Amino acid sequence: MGFRKRTMAGSPTSSNDEHDIEVMFPLHHEISSDSTDDENPAQPTCFCDSPTRQSEPPISRTANPQSPSEQDLLVLKGSLPLSYGDHHSHSSRPNLFLIGFAMVAMAAVFLSRSSVNFVSNQVTTLTANRDHLNDKLRKATRDLYMLKRELSAVDILMEDQAMVDSKGSPDEGSHQLQLNELNALQSRIRGLEETSVNMKRLVQTTSRQQILEKYGGGVKQVEMELVFPDGKEGPTKFVIAIDDNLMPHSSFTFLEMVSSGLMDGCSFILNALHVLKAAPLPYDGSSAAAKARAFTELGLESVAFKEYSDSFPHTKYTVGFAADGSPSFFINTEDNTEIHVGDPCFGRIIEGFDTIKRLEASPTRNGIWFAKRIGIKKARVL
Question: Which residues belong to any copy of the PPIase cyclophilin-type domain (predicted)?
Answer without folding.
Answer: 237-381
